[in-house]
User: What shape does this take?
Amino acid sequence: MADNRYEREEYLEQSDDERETARRTGSLIALAVVAALLIACVLLTGRLKDVSALQDCLMTKATNCAEVIAPR
Assistant: This one.
């Protein structure tokens, strides 16, 4: 019976290769999440800059504020 228990525990433990693969996978996922957040922040910052320029123009009561925001 002792041999059967040892064999079961052996299969439950991860080998060094499996641990390394799990670390790499986790690191790649974390890198992808950080990259996605960085891209979202850059896009959001650009959009907020455009909206701020439009609001500044509107607060001056100008009539040609459509020219403030350049088409992309």
